[in-house]
Amino acid sequence: MKPIKVGLLGLGTVGYGAFRVLARNQEEIQRRAGRGIEVTKIAVRDVERARALVAGACEVVGDPMLVVSDPDIDIVVETIGGYDLTRELVLQAIANGKHIVTANKALLAVYGNEIFAAARKANVMVAFEAAVAGGIPIIKALREGLTANRIQWIAGIINGTTNFILSEMRDKGIDFDAALADAQQLGYAEADPTFDIEGVDAAHKVTIMSAIAFGVPVQFDKAYVEGISRLAAIDIKYAEELGYRIKLLGITRRTDAGIELRVHPTLIPAKRLIANVEGAMNAVLVHGDAVGATLYYGKGAGAEPTASAVVADIVDVTRLHTADPEHRVPHLAFQHDALSNTPVLPIEEVTTSYYLRLCVADKAGVLAEITRILADLNISIDALLQKESREGEPQTDIIILTHETQEKHINAAIAKIEALETVLSKVTRIRMEALS
Ligand code: HSE
């Protein structure tokens, strides 16, 4: 059989990684795919650099439309990133009958519904294993391996940059800015780290997982997103004293009222396996009704781990290229006409437990006033820690762990607590998950 022809958009970390892995493992990949896979054309901005890298192995062009509209190309691999240009290129490639492989979580979280609809119309596949948790085959697991299950919830450490920063803050007792500077120096964090540290990258990824897990459209605009940039080293220390670690989790859960879709720093019991995922590693915990809890761990970024997922998608598409489109695995795991309109819950409707840190005047009756406010709102206290006030300081920290309550109730409690004269600064609130 003739080799399948691949066009690459971009030859950066991911694109060049995929090119190298394909070349290096060519023989085994061909035995798996059933036919050869040949990169025939690459579009890049810096044509000279790319020509030097590929050393004559394929054509290099400056205009991505030359890849997207090349009649010989079967699969377009998009590794450029960003939304606007890539949306246009991907839709054009689909219209030209090309299958798409992409690592672009932002594109799919925001424009996925439009792209999947176009792909269905054109009878082509859109594969995106590399978009979530890099080299971990979590899309495959959710879409195929766990297909027997009614998935109940997913909680993932799906951003390596922030996990690295949190590990540094805990290990070294340093604050966020110092840990971010370390991450940038070591090349884990981008020069502009906003998407990572503010939780946007993780929200893109959990949005995609939520759609596949629950059979709903991608709905990034409904996700609650809170990053780690305001996290204080003292909270990591207090959490540790209480037997918890703080991780930036992407969480999606099915409830009777709707779907939770949220990213925020989260206290989780230190004894959970996922609590011990350190540095830039990723891990995703998936709970299905039949299988129970399953955990997937690995590298979420980097040239070759991401290439591992991109090339796996290329092989998948190659195997299914000639299959009847009706017999392919649906893009979002559920048949397109069987997606549900289950609502995504606003964060005020989410039920979870909370860590609260209060800086209070160290005098009689303060704790009684605070616990009265919580009791009046039916918020039950699970644990309470009062630090000794430092000598000469008339103030102290109180840490309260609550049982589960709705976010709107904790918001009301915090507003009342902050209004007390004896409470000296804003209340720090961090959500907690037992993940049991
Ligand atoms: N910037 C991401 C991370 C990797 O830090 O995990 C790509 O999604």
Please explain how this structure is put together.
L-homoserine binds at residue 190. Its EC number is 1.1.1.3. This is Homoserine dehydrogenase. Residues 355-432 form the ACT domain. This protein is of the alpha/beta class and 436 residues long. The chain has 15 helices and 17 strands. Helix 6 packs parallel to helix 11 and helix 14 packs antiparallel against helix 15 (407-419). The radius of gyration is 24 Å and the shape is elongated. It starts with a strand and ends with a strand. 47% of the residues are buried. The mean pLDDT is 96. It binds L-homoserine. Residues 159-161, 196, 201, 300-301 line the site of L-homoserine.
Concise account of the structure shown:
With 436 residues, the chain is an alpha/beta fold. The protein has helices at residues 13-24, 26-33, 47-54, 65-68, 84-95, 105-122, 138-145, 160-172, 176-185, 194-197, 200-214, 233-241, 303-320, 366-376, 407-419, and strands spanning 4-9, 37-43, 59-61, 75-78, 99-102, 126-127, 151-157, 224-225, 244-254, 259-269, 281-288, 292-299, 351-361, 381-386, 395-402, 405-406, 428-432. The chain folds into three domains: 4-135 and 303-338, NAD(P)-binding Rossmann-like Domain (Rossmann fold), CATH 3.40.50; 138-299, Dihydrodipicolinate Reductase, domain 2; 349-432, ACT domain (Alpha-Beta Plaits, 2-Layer Sandwich), CATH 3.30.70.
